[in-house]
Amino acid sequence: MPSARRDMPYYRSQFKKCAVVGNGGILKNSRCGREINSADFVFRCNLPPISEKYTMDVGVKTDVVTVNPSIITERFHKLEKWRRPFYRVLQVYENASVLLPAFYNTRNTDVSIRVKYVLDDFESPQAVYYFHPQYLVNVSRYWLSLGVRAKRISTGLILATAALELCEEVHLFGFWAFPMNPSGLYITHHYYDNVKPRPGFHAMPSEIFNFLHLHSRGILRVHTGTCSCC
């Protein structure tokens, strides 16, 4: 696995049990909220809704939440005018750290740095961190060597990689890339909507097959059914 930056506030195998929560429709009606909340550390992808409507399925505990710069551009107008709506969204995750790929390409840098300014302006205790660009390159190369051929690997795959470095036990929730669940029932793309991703951008089926391979080897656990605790 590619190594994390030494100056990050986390270190290898720091956490016993981690949950990486994707946004897949496989989470809907899963009743996995309590199990997710029981993890020692919880990663979430790209500002997903965790309101009371979804709590039973996805939980609320959040230690790190990522923000794709495209979300800031499209939903919050690059934070160039009104910043409070974005701040209110981040408050939902309480004291979770905010993680962005600020230096992955030059288009992301300015808008990602504005996130830190917003939190500073509102005197928020939430910390902002940026992926080291070389770390993202190393992660992409690693998974490419395992057959994940995509224009860009998904945020979920990056977080799962980090979790495998930082946690003794890794549980994946909400990771699925198919229109039907393992029981053959049709599911929505996300647990909160059915908006499809841009075609040809990620290689989600390949990512999932790799996760299932790791699951079969006991390296991590992929949750695809209903959780026993509710």
Automatic annotation (TrEMBL):
<comment type="pathway">
    <text>Protein modification; protein glycosylation.</text>
</comment>
<dbReference type="GO" id="GO:0006629">
    <property type="term" value="P:lipid metabolic process"/>
</dbReference>
<keyword id="KW-0333">Golgi apparatus</keyword>
<keyword id="KW-1015">Disulfide bond</keyword>
<keyword id="KW-0735">Signal-anchor</keyword>
<comment type="similarity">
    <text>Belongs to the glycosyltransferase 29 family.</text>
</comment>
<keyword id="KW-0443">Lipid metabolism</keyword>
<comment type="function">
    <text>Involved in the synthesis of gangliosides GD1c, GT1a, GQ1b, GP1c and GT3 from GD1a, GT1b, GM1b and GD3 respectively.</text>
</comment>
<keyword id="KW-0808">Transferase</keyword>
<dbReference type="GO" id="GO:0008373">
    <property type="term" value="F:sialyltransferase activity"/>
</dbReference>
<keyword id="KW-0472">Membrane</keyword>
<dbReference type="InterPro" id="IPR050943">
    <property type="entry name" value="Glycosyltr_29_Sialyltrsf"/>
</dbReference>
<dbReference type="GO" id="GO:0000139">
    <property type="term" value="C:Golgi membrane"/>
</dbReference>
<keyword id="KW-0325">Glycoprotein</keyword>
<keyword id="KW-0328">Glycosyltransferase</keyword>
<dbReference type="Pfam" id="PF00777">
    <property type="entry name" value="Glyco_transf_29"/>
</dbReference>
<dbReference type="InterPro" id="IPR038578">
    <property type="entry name" value="GT29-like_sf"/>
</dbReference>
<dbReference type="InterPro" id="IPR001675">
    <property type="entry name" value="Glyco_trans_29"/>
</dbReference>
<keyword id="KW-1133">Transmembrane helix</keyword>
<keyword id="KW-0812">Transmembrane</keyword>
<protein>
    <recommendedName>
        <fullName>Alpha-2,8-sialyltransferase 8E</fullName>
    </recommendedName>
</protein>
